[in-house]
Amino acid sequence: GKPAAIAHIAKEQGMQGWSEDRWTELRAVYYGMCARIDHQFGLVVSALKEAGLYDDTAMFFFSDHGDFTGDYGVVQKFNNQMCDVLSRVPFLVKPPANHAVKPRVSDALVELVDLPATVFEMTGIKPDYHQFGKSLLPVLKGESNEHRDAVFCQGGRLKGESLNDVFEFQKRGKTSEYWTTNVVCTSDDNATHGPASGKATMCRTREYKYVHRLLKQTNCMTLKAILAKRKIVLMTQPLQRFKHNLKTAQCVST
Q1: CA dihedral sign of residues 9, 111, 104, 221
Q2: Apex CA 196: angle with CA 192 and CA 201, to 5°?
Q3: End-to-end Cα separation, the chain, in angstroms
């Protein structure tokens, strides 16, 4: 089912009565902001070419998250929601000219932690700390289109735990552009099950998406159901095994 936080945010934002024309205008503003970023990035690319540095430059274009633009009747984002519109973001790479590349659109599963790992390999840097990224150079070269068998996201908070934007919300109150989402973030709405912003972790493969919510409902679904009609399908035997393996797996760091 739909995460509890969505219903809380929808209630606070009060946009249920919006017409489709008004939603279209909101999305147009969002696309306009994206277009502005594209233009500004283009200025950087032009400056690099004019300075003769473009071929020597590695360029990475990505986002930390997406935004709701009317999905589920809400806007902005929320820190424990794992919907594709928030967690599946573009990742564009232009390596320096001295690195082999096969230009294309790849459907490889990638995490943002793979960015520094790729930079380390490109530059020959040996990090002096343990990190979990995986270099994308084999994918960029076209040697493989398989990068990871699963990707992960985590967000939310434990009951009683503060978030980094709480102080901004308390200081500005309703004048904050993030007031509605912060109301949900900072309220322990249910003494038994904890806040709607409770800790959540997502594991996604090419076939399945599993979201474990520490304090609320856990979801396990096939991606075909998400892409087709956004319906949660009945648990099949492969899906049951996938969920069981996730719950029994042990995470070991070395």
Answers
A1: negative
A2: 105
A3: 37
**Which residues face 220 on adjacent strands?**
210
Per this entry, what is the length of the chain?
254
Closest to 141 in 3D by CA, of 161, 122, 124: 122
Instruction: Output the DSSP codes for 85-109.
Output: HHH---EEEE--TTS----S-----
Q: How far apart are CA 109 and CA 240, in angstroms?
A: 22
Is-contact 159 194, C-beta < 8 A? yes
Q: Are 137 and 58 in contact (CB under 8 A)?
A: no
Residue 54 CB contacts under 8 Å (≥ 6 apart), including other chains: 45, 48
Q: What does the CA dihedral 10, 16, 18, 21 come to, rounded to 10 degrees?
A: 80
- pLDDT tens readout for residues 77-115: 877 788 888 888 889 999 999 999 999 999 999 999 999
In sequence order, what are the residues at sequence separation of 6 or more whose Cβ sits closer than 8 angstroms to the Cβ of residue 178? 76, 165, 168, 169
* Residue written as token pair 């929320």: 78
Give the CB-side neighbour count of residue 94, counting CA atoms within 13 A: 10
Q: What is the pLDDT of residue 111?
A: 93
What three-state secondary structure class fits 236? Answer: coil
Calculated CA dihedral for residues 134, 138, 142, 146, nearest 10 degrees:
-40
| Tokens describing residue 199 | 């800790």
Q: Is the pLDDT of residue 245 over 80?
A: no
Nearest Cα residue to 183 out of 27, 78, 64: 78
Q: What pLDDT sits at residue 98?
A: 94
214, 198 contact by CB (below 8 A):
yes
